[in-house]
Each structure stands twice: as C-alpha cells, then as structure tokens.
Amino acid sequence: MGDWFAENGPLLGLALLDGIASAALIFMVAVGLNLVFGVLRILNVAHGSLFAIGAYAAASIGLFLGSAGLPAWASLPALLLSAVLVGVVLGPVVERLLLRRIYGQEPVLQLLVTFALFMILEDAQKLLWGVQPVSWSAPVSLMGTVDVPFGADVIPYNTYQVILLPAVAVVTLLGLALFLRRTLTGRVIVAVTADREAATAMGIDARRVFLLTFTFGAVLAALGGALSAPTSSLVPGIGASTIVLSFAVVATAGLGQIEGAALTALLIGLGRSIAVTFAPEFEVVIPYLIMVAVLLVRPQGLFGVAETRRV
Amino acid sequence: MTGPRIELLLAAIGAAALVLAAWTTPWLKFVLTIALAKGIATLGILLLLRAGQVSFGHALYVAVSAYAVAFLAPALPDTLLLLPIGAAAAMALGTLIGLFVSRYREIFFGMLNLALSMVFYSVLEKFYHYTRGTDGIRVPPLTVLGQGLGREAYEWAMFGTALGLAVLFGLFARLYLASPMGQALSGIKTRETRLDFMGVSPRRVLLAAYVLSALMAGCAGAIIAMTTRHVTPLLSYWTASGELVFIAILGGAGGVLGPFLGAVAYELVRVYAAATVADMWQMILGAVLLLVILFAPGGLWGVAAAAMRRAR
Description:
Largest sheet of chain A: 2 strands, antiparallel
Radius of gyration of chain B: 19 Å
Number of strands of chain B: 4
Radius of gyration of chain A: 20 Å
Low-confidence stretches of chain B: none
Order of helices and strands of chain A: HHHHHEEHHHHHHH
Oligomer: heterodimer
Largest interface: A-B, 43 and 45 residues
Number of strands of chain A: 2
C-alpha cells in the first residue's frame, strides 16, 4: 500500500482535483434540472442543450472580446453575461410557447415534448456554431496555476478549475439554499413545489413561479456550460452527454434533492476522474454503474423520499 | 365491414403496394427494407407506449443485434442463422435490463433507457480493438439458406424477410394487445395500483412487453446489419432511438399499422430530403414531432382512421 501510494500518489492527487473540477460543473447542471423538475414536475430533456448553448455563447463572446482587443480579465464577466443572456432569452420563450401547453398532462407527453425540443436545439447549435471544435481558454490561462500540496507532493493545477469552479458551485448551493428558505420569492417557490393547489388557493400566481423557475434553471444550465467552455474544446454532442450525466446525478441523489445532488455530483465526478486516470476505458461507464448500484438498493435515490402510492 | 377487418384489408393492400413499389423501382427495395425493419422496431415502442412509457434508448437493442450479426458473420455466413442469433442476443440483454428498468415509470424509465444506450454507444466507440470504433465493421457477403445469391436476388431475399417479419409481428402485436397481458398494459397507463389489487404484477406485465420490444428491435437490427452490410456505433446513438420514437408518434400509437405507415413515410422523406438538409434533419424531426403531439396526437394512422370514419 505504501509503495503503491509513493508511486501513484501524485496521479491520485491529480485525479481528485480533476474530480472536484468536473463535479462542480455537473452540479451546476444537475441543480437546475432538479429545481425545474421540483416546481414544474417536468423533466427537461433539453436541459443539456441549454448547457451546450451556454458554452458556445461564452466561447463566442469571449473570442469576440479577445479579438476586439479588450483586456483578458474581461473574459470572466463575459462568461456570466453569456449565461444570463442565454437563460433569459431562451428560458421564457420555451416556457411560454411550449411548456405552458403541457402542464398537468400525461408524463409521457411531457417527456416527448422536451425531447422534441432537445432534437431542435441540438441542430440549432450545429447551425449556429458548425461542427468544428471551438476552443477558448483565455480565462484558464489568465488565472494561471496554483500549487496544491498533496501528501509529500506538490501538484500544480489550474486556478480556474480547482478554485473558481468549486467556489462558484459552493456559492450557488449556499445562495440557492438561502434564497429558497429566507426570501419571499424563494418561499413561494417552495410552497408551489410542496403543494401547487394549496399555494394557488392562497393567492400565489403559480404561472409566474413556473416562468421564473424555468428561466432560473435555464440560467444555471447556461452558466454551467459557460464555465465549462474554457476547460475543453466544444464539439457537437456535449448537450446529449450532459443531460444523460446530469440525469444520472439527479437520479442517484433522488429527484428534487438539491444538497443531495451536490454530494452525488462529487461522488460521480471523483469516480469518473479516478477511472480516467487508472482505467480509462471505464470512464464513461462509471457514473452509470454508480447510478445502477444505488438504484438497485434504493429505488428513490440516496437522499430521495419514497412516494406513497395513489389508488 | 368491421374495424379489424378493414385494418387487415389495409395491411394486405399496404404489403402489396410495397412489393409493387420494390418491383417497379429497384432502388426502393433497399429503402423499403430498412423502413420495414424500423417499423418492426417501432412496433416494440408501441407496446411500451400502450403502458404510457416511452424509451429513449431502444436503438441499444437494434445495435446489439446488428453487432452480433457483424461479429458472427465471418464464422456463420448465413442470414437464417444470424437473424435468430442477433434477435436472441437483443432479447437476452432486454431481459437483463428489463428486470432493472421495469421497476421504474415515465421519467426514470425513459431516461434510464437513454443512459444505458449512451453507455453502449461509448463502449462501441472506445473499445476500438474489438469494435473498430467509429469506423464500424463490414459484414461479409452472406448466404440465404446456404445459397449464395446475386445482388438483386439477395436484396429481394432481405426485402421478403423484412416484409414477412413485419406481417408476423404485426399480427402478433394485435393478438398480444387484445390478450389479457396487452389489456394489462393499458392498465399500467391509467392506474397500475388497480392491477396490483387484482393480483396482477404490473412489473411483470411491463417486463414482458419490454422483452418483446427488445426482440422486435433485435430483428430490426439484424435485418439492418444484413441489408446495409456495415454496422457503426451510430446505430445505438440517441438520434437513432429518437428516430424510433419519432416514427411511433408520427405513425400513431393507435394501431399496429401506425408504425409501418410512419416508418415508410419517414424513410421515403429521409431519402429525398435528409441529404439536402443534413444539418437541420434533427431540427425538422423535432419540429414535426412537436406539431404532431400538439395538433394531431393520433399521428398519421389517427388522421387516416378519422377520415375513414367520416367517409362511412
């Protein structure tokens, strides 16, 4: 064990850091998916496409600012701006034109509608940004590296991935918890989640809450995408893999669990990065093995509460 | 004439029209064979839709069977051996996965199927050593019942196999949906606790339909592999699963002719249009899917059935 550790220590440390960075991104997407499901009771299959569009938009705006000669630090506000832009433009359009027609309808219909939207957005993104990989790494090079001590070793790692990404995820988690528990709007959202009829009877405009929540979820997905843009080159298909992965996180945690999703994202992120380092062929399989293993033992997810059945 | 007899008559007319089309326009044989195969796979999706469940991952079973055919073809180069083996492979995997996913409904059912098919896609892509990754595997020329056939005769043989299986599975699905097992499927959709109270296990009812749908997708996959003679991981990609769901909704989930009507319409349009709008193909499919769901929920078959009722 000691020998193995001496030899593979730095590698393991690197895997842990990779895992934390990717967990932060997965969490950003999963939490939005969860929030939207909790309130609207619709699983948005197109959530991954919002992630992809956020990523492409951030890269485009970032590259544009770069070529316009703006200073490098401007790329960070650009990330935020593109995410908000994508969410605030696409969110209300989708909610108003599409989702509003299918609230309370059969679940299979709702799934089909968001799946159709997913098909549309996947191609829209190919039309807008082409199929060639898009790379934009200004924020990563801007922030440089930081030396992370790991046992006897020191691992130099991107500041962007090891500090900024987890920081944003933690701020999102805490901010969301505070927002939902302490602000009036947050409490209204929680009330609609718990019992839509009772909330409406007390004078809450559920339609407005739906619109607000969906837009907020879209911003979170786009922000996740925008944050991921500098860390890898963008290719078609990231939307599909993102929705599948974030669903795995949400399912493992239990639908509607926000804090649970954070822990599960960490678990799955670490599992995947350790697999990348030590058994690369199994990288893609690990998250789903974790999911299947958890669901076999606890069908409602790690943190989910089993629903009582209606007759 | 009563409803079921009209349906049988229409099926016979449809089959005759397909044979005629394949005979007069030789290149259509290939297109129609693929369309019939996809129709068979969609018939499985239809069984699940009866229970109110939609799978976004059934291309998995098409691909498993197609790869089984491609792997075994050098050793067993006969279509009548490969077809049952491919279908059995899909059915075996369907039983295994079905034991797991039949515990879930709606969102979980749909998304777990999607996740598992994407895992299989990645495995096909990553394990280059065995699967040749995205290049795919070529299937060598095959014999039919031990006979080496020319190109034209081989295409007819595949077309005939696809048509024969389509008719068989269509008749079977009709009988199945009318049987207690089929009726129980609709029970899952309306309220499955009632099935429980009647002493029927909803899980087993769904599992049976799931295994059958895997078998149908497997037959489709074997036919596709033997007809195109080239298999790639794209067979299991989410777009392929989406295609099956699209065909099911386009054709209409009301009757067993729906999937075949949908598949033929889909493949014919695809042959003419897909090349010119390749970058927009999924987008167009998505838009049509939305329009059908929102404005013509019965699909093509529903529209045709309504027209027939008005005419009478």
